[in-house]
Amino acid sequence: MKQNLAIETVALTKHYPKVEALRGMTINVPQGSLCGLIGLNGAGKTTTLRILLGMAKPTSGTAKALGLNALDPEQNRLIRSRTAFVPERKDLFPYMTASEVIRFTMGFYPN
Hints:
Blueprint: E1 5-16, E2 19-30, H1 45-52, E3 60-65, E4 68-69, H2 73-82, H3 98-105
């Protein structure tokens, strides 16, 4: 029986001009389990989440979340409608309060 995976990456890499953020990351996280990404600053934790949510494109490899292709724009929209991401830094509009950011971004998510 095939195991349902919440997150699946295969040989995922991400290169920025002067940084290699991910190098061949392959992970399988079963649905219903808890998983934490632990590592030093710059280890690729946020980059991995950003790729899974369609906020960044990998240099190579594949990424799936909830059985959906994270690299496909339509499927990625479905992933984002079923998940949440709270980044460490709020880069959207520095003058907004947390409540104002929530109110503003609610329009991006139909549910």
